[in-house]
Amino acid sequence: xxxxxxxxxxxxxxxxxxxxxxxxxxxxxxxxxxxxxxxxxxxxxxxxxxxxxxxxxxxxxxxxxxxxx
Length: 69
Ligand SMILES: [Cu+2]
Known about the structure:
Blueprint: E1 2-9, H1 14-25, E2 30-36, E3 41-46, H2 52-62, E4 65-66
Antiparallel strand pairs: 1-3, 1-4, 2-3
């Protein structure tokens, strides 16, 4: 299991969090997603390391942006 934390910009409420969570959960291999709206931190648990571009695409699909890290 891998756990990776990303920073997502633009989330303001629980609805934002669930949109991001739903899209990121759609990435193959992802088993859990935890979103902290206040900090913008999104912690993703997956079977194998994820391609950051897949995560970026999912976050953008939800209407938000991945902060540069
Ligand atoms: Cu919102």
